[in-house]
């Protein structure tokens, strides 16, 4: 099975363990999955994929969460909190405003540690246990470190995380810290952290659980299975397009792998595969640069900057797996500004969906591609939101309104809120006014009721 969408399943090699093996996507070399540790090909250093003798069908899926899809995973079960089974929100106002046939938000921020990384870690930490390794490690813009710390703790294992100093949102460091990871802050960006941790892994000092580890992506594949199943249940068809934020391009690679496996088993027709559309921040957009120039390779950006710190990445290591995913599904990639990201974060919040900035990139990207006509009005679209609002409280404060200081006194509070437009009593009075022919009278009644209530409260407190 190559990275072509139509590739048939490969035949099981002698090195396979229970129908599972590792295969280099560049030279095709095959490796036993659990005898030795491999992150990349021992021959050519190409990326590895987990391959199965029997690709999955929908009928085999049962239960809920990531392990519902164990027919497509290397084990029956893993170290679980549990994860997956995230909501596929409807957003009718946004759908109408953006102008697509249907729009759903797959909110991966609803996983146990608040990001999609949990899906990868439940599998990755299980593999670490199978291999019998000691110390688990990752480089991270924050979310991977939080998930590694939590799942490592759950599995009773030591964890080490390397973070770019000063560029990780507060919620994520707090999680990694409380779950007991040893946190090393590197004076460099994410890509330098990954260089270092890869070298430590090469020396056998740590077991690497970044998405370069092919088993991580197996867990993340389940996002694709869930979207297809949920969408089909609701609409009787699969979505035309999935729009997602891109950092290291792990999810893009993982979703594409999910679709390829379903095509290989005959469960999904090639024509039913959703178009994969990646979104990056303008200040960290090497994948977009590659796609817009039709290139098969990504040029590393040494200087990256964006408010969406989760995707502040200049060297997407999974690009060789993700670019075919975008090209072979007829997809594209687009860059959005930090302000467009914040606007989208506010829009989602207005629909009750709280996400961190990187997550909102998907909606911002959809809006941009719809506005320039690259996405048409008749499409059914799913936007992936990857992390929870509380991951980055500072960004949420900046995007939201400021708290208003008020005196410790009900009458003063009442006066304060009625000066604004949305005060509760004002709101009640406004509603009564709107319903009546003579607006002033009900407003007076509404206000009168409020004052009478205050007088009553004061009498009660005098009694006490
Ligand atoms: N969204 C969020 C919230 C993320 O944390 C990440 C990656 C991405 C999107 C990008 O996903 O790498 O699969 O393209 N965060 C990693 C981390 C790098 O260390 O937490 P991708």
From TrEMBL:
Pfam families: PALP
Cofactor: pyridoxal 5'-phosphate
UniProt enzyme class: lyase
Superkingdom of origin organism: Archaea
MF term (GO), any: threonine synthase activity
InterPro entries: Ser/Thr_Dehydratase, Ser/Thr_deHydtase_PyrdxlP-BS, Thr_synthase-like, TrpB-like_PALP, TrpB-like_PALP_sf
Pathway: Amino-acid biosynthesis; L-threonine biosynthesis; L-threonine from L-aspartate: step 5/5
Gene Ontology biological-process annotations: isoleucine biosynthetic process; L-serine catabolic process; L-threonine catabolic process; threonine biosynthetic process
Family as reported in the entry's similarity comment: Belongs to the threonine synthase family.
NCBIfam families: thrC (TIGR00260)
Protein name per Swiss-Prot or TrEMBL: Threonine synthase
Taxonomic source organism: Halonotius roseus
């Amino acid at each position: 099975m190559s990275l072509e969408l139509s590739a048939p399943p490969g035949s099981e090699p002698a090195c396979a363990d229970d129908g599972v093996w590792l295969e280099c996507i560049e030279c095709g070399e095959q490796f036993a999955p659990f005898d030795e540790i491999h992150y990349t090909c021992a021959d050519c250093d190409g990326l590895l994929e987990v391959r199965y003798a029997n690709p999955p069908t929908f009928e085999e899926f049962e239960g809920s969460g990531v392990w519902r899809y164990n027919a497509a995973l290397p084990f029956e079960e893993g170290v679980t909190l549990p994860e997956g089974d995230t909501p596929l929100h409807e957003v009718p106002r946004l759908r109408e405003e953006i102008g697509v046939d249907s729009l759903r938000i797959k909110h991966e921020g609803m996983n146990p540690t608040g990001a999609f990384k949990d899906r990868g870690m439940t599998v990755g930490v299980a593999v670490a246990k199978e291999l019998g390794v000691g110390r688990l490690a990752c480089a991270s813009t924050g979310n991977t470190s939080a998930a590694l710390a939590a799942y490592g703790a759950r599995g009773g294992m030591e964890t080490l995380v390397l973070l770019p100093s000063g560029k990780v949102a507060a919620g994520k460091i707090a999680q990694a810290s409380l779950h007991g990871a040893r946190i090393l802050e590197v004076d460099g960006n994410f890509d330098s952290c990954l260089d270092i941790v890869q070298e430590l892994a090469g020396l056998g000092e740590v077991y690497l659980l970044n998405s370069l580890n092919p088993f991580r992506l197996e867990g993340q594949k389940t996002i694709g299975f869930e979207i297809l199943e949920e969408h089909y249940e609701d609409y009787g068809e699969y979505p035309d397009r999935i729009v997602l934020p891109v950092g290291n391009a792990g999810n893009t690679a993982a979703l594409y792998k999910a679709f390829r496996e379903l095509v290989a088993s005959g469960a999904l027709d090639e024509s039913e595969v959703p178009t994969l559309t990646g979104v990056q921040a303008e200040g960290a957009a090497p994948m977009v640069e590659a796609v817009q120039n039709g290139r098969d390779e990504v040029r590393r950006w040494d200087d990256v900057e964006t408010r969406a710190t989760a995707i502040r990445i200049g060297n997407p290591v999974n690009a060789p797996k993700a670019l075919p995913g975008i090209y072979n599904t007829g997809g594209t990639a687009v860059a959005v500004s930090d302000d467009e990201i914040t606007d989208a974060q506010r829009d989602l919040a207005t629909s009750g969906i709280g996400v961190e900035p990187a997550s909102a990139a998907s909606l911002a990207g959809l809006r941009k591609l719809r506005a320039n006509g690259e996405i048409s009005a008749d499409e059914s679209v799913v936007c992936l939101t990857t992390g929870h609002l509380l991951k980055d409280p500072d960004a949420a404060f900046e995007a939201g309104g400021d708290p208003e200081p008020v005196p410790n006194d009900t009458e003063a509070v009442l006066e304060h809120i009625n000066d604004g437009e949305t005060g509760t009593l004002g709101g009640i009075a406004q509603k009564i006014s709107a319903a009546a022919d003579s607006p002033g009278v009900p407003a007076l009644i509404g206000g009168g009721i409020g004052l009478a209530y205050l007088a009553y409260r004061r009498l009660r407190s005098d009694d006490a």
